Amino acid sequence: MTQLISAKNGEMTPELVAIAEKEGVDAKVLMQKVAEGKVCILKNINHTNCVPTAVGEGLSIKVNANIGTSKDRSCTKEELEKLKIIHETGADAVMDLSTGADIDETRKAIIKECRIPLGTVPMYQAGKEAMDNHGSILELDKDKLFSDIEKHCRDGVDFITVHCGVTRQVVDFLKEQGRICDIVSRGGSMLAAWVLGNNKENPLYEFYDDLLDIAKTYDTTLSLGDGLRPGAGADAGDRAQVAESLFLGELVSRARKAGVQTMVEGPGHVPLNQIPAMIETIKYLTQGAPLYVLGPLVTDIAPGYDHITAAIGGTLAAYHGADFLCYVTPSEHLGLPNADQVRQGVITCKIAAHAADVAKGRPQSIERDRQMSMARKALDWETQKKYAIDKTVFEHIETGEPCTMCGKYCSMKLINDYL
Predict the structure, then answer these.
(1) Contact 300, 269 (CB under 8 A)
(2) Are 282 and 212 members of one domain?
């Protein structure tokens, strides 16, 4: 019994009731949106230590953080330290994108410690093993791929990215299009290469019903990956990207009929002026499914600062309908992030999410800003720390005293004395 099926049956699960209270929304309204597929509750039945969260229409904008090993840096302990920081900084979900030495061991260790919903990309494991053991992605076996998917779900993964929309037709559009950056999605590139090299249909699309059966068993949410997301601003909104979105809309409908929770992933690198139309179009084509975006990054020339370019785009995207922001760290396009860069990525993304919530008129977010401003006027640093996104910045300021910027010339103190 998935959250979607329960909602369709008019049953309020404990997870739904808890989320409604936390979000400050009516439980019946939330149940209806879950039933319609416009809200997903991220909670695998086997992830016992997870506090569920929900993404979608009418809820606060959620933030995801990525961790995971690589071939060059494969240390599970390091990734667990990053997970600890992610918990401390208040991200709503985390994804394990490991491609290192022992993916199964790393995933199980992370699940054991993870108190928020966890996502993975099973294709990374299946594709890595095909390339490492057989020398080519073309040797990827459909049964091995689906076996890895079930293993991730059985272990307790709450949502999985699956690039089902990278179909033969979409790959043909890509070939005809002529992009600057053909495919920047790792999972998308693996499947596109498999489709081209084997001249066969994407198994995730061809055997989508099998995928739905697995997801339904564990109530794992399918995050339909944007394998053709633009990796350069000049590629944004082309035929290949739009064609994939059309397929994703079809897959959303099929999942809803099967009782499987589904969200859709979005771009990518997108110029600022194109973001509103792109987000609204994707939401329309996918029947209002929760939209999970990477960025969007509004310029291509800011390596080392892409957490900022992503926050600019993420704020606008969330205002126009995106529901779930994936953080970007300062090391995007440069390498695997360290612990400090993970912290920066979460904090910056949370700023974008909160700014969008304020702009959309969310009462809780507006009140938080008001409380912060009142504390700032009173030079109450402890209360400011309470409401701040990053609480570590107040460690060396004495409450009741002006900061060192103005000292005795503090505008707040001066006007308070005479107003």
Answers:
(1) yes
(2) yes
Closest CA to 156 of 195, 118, 207: 118
Q: Which residues of 236-248 are buried (b: 16+ CB within 10 A; e: fewer)?
A: bbbebbbbbbebb
Asked if 322 and 391 sit in the same domain, the reply is: no
DSSP state, 55? E
Three-state secondary-structure class, residue 324: strand
pTM: 0.96
Q: Using one digit for the tens of pLDDT, what is the confidence trace for 136-186?
A: 999 999 999 999 999 999 999 999 999 999 999 999 999 998 899 999 999
Chosen domain end from 339, 360, 381: 360
**Domain residues for 398?**
364-418
pLDDT in tens, 76-128: 999 999 999 999 999 999 999 999 999 999 999 999 999 999 999 999 999 99
77 burial class (0-12, 13-18, 19+ CB within 10 angstroms)?
exposed
Structure token pair of residue 72 = 């060059």
d(CA 64, CA 349): 9
Same-domain pairing of 414 and 320: no
Paired residues of 159 in beta bridges: 119, 221
Q: Where are the beta strands (DSSP E) in 225-310?
A: 262-266, 291-294
Type of residue found at 352: A
68 closest CA partner among 18, 110, 25, 8:
110
Backbone angles phi, psi at 359, to 5 degrees: -65, -30
Closest among 30, 29, 56 to 42, alpha carbons compared: 56
Would the CA dihedral through 141, 145, 146, 148 be positive or negative? positive
Number of domains in the chain: 2
Same domain, 67 and 114: yes
Give CA–CA dist 93/117, Å, rounded: 5
Q: Are 321 and 59 in contact (CB under 8 A)?
A: no
Residue 90's Cβ-count burial label (10 Å; 0-12, 13-18, 19+) is middle
Tokens of 384: 């400011």
